[in-house]
Please model this.
Amino acid sequence: MGVSIALAAVDPGRAALERTAFFGSESDGEATVVVERLGGTAGVLSVRVATAGLSASQGLDYAARDVVVTWADGDSQPKLVTVPIFDDFDIEPTELVEILLSSVPVGLGPSILLETGVIAIADADGPVACSPSARHLCLLGSRFRVEVEWRNQRNGQRGIGTAVPFADETGFFWFFDPDNIELATKALDGRAVTGAFWFFYGALSDVEYWITVTDTEAGSRQLYHNEPGGICGRGDTRAFPLQSQSPADGASTTARGAVGPATVLSLPVEGAIGSPVSRQACMANERTLCLLDGRFEVEVDWRNQRNGQEGVGSAIPFSNQTGLFWFFDSANIELVTKALDGRGVNGNFWFFFGALSDVEYTIRVRDTVTDQVQTYRNEPSNICGQGDTAAFPGGGGGPIAPPPPATSVRVGVVGCSQTTNAWRGWIDADPDQVWVVASGYGGGDIADWSRDIPNGDYWGRLDANIAANAPATAVWWQICDLAADNGTTQDAEAVLAEIQRRIPGAPVFVSSLADFETPETCVKQDIENSRFLVDHLTSLGLASRGPDLPMVMDSWIQPPEGDGRCHVGKTGR
Model:
């Protein structure tokens, strides 16, 4: 009689920050970072927690920490890491410390960054009330103080947003040029509707930034983070409830009751819908903006999906590059638009808009030199801005810088951490024909991708990569089945449809996970189910079969190059 022994998979779980924003004050003396163990609890799990200064200075504002926290077998209790905070007795804005959560190196292997967050340190030396300053906005009778810190992911440059007051409810920030607005913010009293004050912001920039909003009466704070490459705004209709939590409780960077996601970039540009006919000059009036010395004419029509009300956006000129529209109240800006001359970069004029409203609207932009027209439509309940760096090919009005050489193929990528790991080999081989992955897909199980539809974390990562790269002419999707709850054919079809919606017109090629020389090396995967899902999609003609990756050899994943688990080093890539 045979004996069957079932071996249970060992799942140590994973470490994660309890939230992505923690709060402290110079008067507190310290801030506490909470690290959780999620998923399984089998075996020992360790993670490295370190700090790095953003606007806060190490030694002056805080004491650096670089520690390893460890959970024993079966332990699931959160771990606390305290970061000492110093009072420098200067009156200053909110200062940020970055928290870096990373893997503990195996042998001589690298430490892999897993997640980041921030500590927001409030000043204890200045007045509590909000008073006008170039470093912050004061909104809604100066009850709310709004501060912005930014970091350019392309060159590492950092700075504090310069505030531009506009109305009691609305204000703006610029980062690089006073005429070039990068961020629009708005606070509304929504207590009669949701029992809370509301906060909205609309982006006209894809650099990384952090917005800290302080209710100076209640003492509570919210922090909103735009990841590098994101150009989405957010509408938080429960930002500051009547029973606001205290700063010690900590507010999440994830907006509760948010109208739209924070890290989504979509470019549903319908393209030119007209040909040269009249070439009429731009005539600025109550409904028309004229940008870039009058070359571009901008108009907006809107419709409130809640009551069917329709109207025309009322234009407010702001600068040569930037203009505003209001729909219901002249003090309540709903839309910020911007035109830039990007011919020196890619041979085109660029168009951006940032939303402070989730109503349906259509923006019509006309190049008065060529009469080419672009239209941009915002779907009801969406609050994402858009950035179109190919809006209008350069022509007329001065010399045109030659565009970079065209590439016939540009391949995008979707998958998991193993996909990102292998993809680096293709980047090394031919960086001009594949995406550079700005936001990795760590985890990336097919069931997670399916559950996240349409605006969860993994789709935000894909959108960040869409924003950071030239439009994809094809997409490679490695179907990763990593969890105990195997992905289904319904999951596969749903994820494929969402990829096609986000990257329209690009054929999708699907591949399974690769075999391992020693299968036990990477235990958290189901290669057979991954292959089954690839076969399912290709047999129905929904996708094309992609490349079969070679077997992963043990020597490729062992330290010092690999991580000793599932990820190859340079030789394997």
About this structure: The mean pLDDT is 81. The chain is about 10% helix and 35% strand.
